[in-house]
Amino acid sequence: MIESCVDTMLSIDAWLDEKPYKELYDGVVHEKVSPQRAHGKVVQRIGRLLEDWGGSRGDVAPEWRVYLAEGTTLVPDLAFISDERLAPLPEAQREKPPFAPDIVVEVRSPADREANIRRKTELYLAHGARIVLNVDPSTRTVSMSDARGEVTLRPGDVVTSPAFPDLRIPVYDMFAPLDRKI
Description:
Layout: H1 2-16, E1 22-25, E2 28-31, H2 37-54, E3 58-62, E4 66-69, E5 72-74, E6 78-82, H3 83-86, H4 91-95, E7 103-107, H5 114-126, E8 131-136, E9 141-146, E10 149-153, E11 158-161, E12 164-170, H6 171-175
Parallel strand pairs: 7-8
Antiparallel strand pairs: 1-2, 3-6, 4-5, 6-7, 8-9, 9-10, 11-12
């Protein structure tokens, strides 16, 4: 019986990790939206900025599946998890941590629903995220949520947080790749 249960969980997990990736929350399977050029360029840029800031104190990775609770698994566009939180985990659990990343970045796609974005933000914060950045390439805004609430940042603003006193990411820098002329 136990082997059957384990086999079932492994097959479910494998199915979630087939492209398009799937997220599971509130009892519903949600397919991740297929990224387009602007989305990919912004994700890559923010990944570089986060790596420059935090690469020596934790891991930054795209599409890093996390398990938040029974029946809840999300795949943020970008995640930063500190070494302090990763170190106690067994190696296998570091691949799919049982908590939200310290910093979550979700880059909005045109098909993303506002209700889903808000719900995922709530889930991330409730399960250990210290900062959630919802980045919108079409409006070039960043909605930053943390323990203090939510604030909308625009080019000219800088992402900062008391949770990470030395974090400083200019919003305009996140969108700089979109200004390249072809």
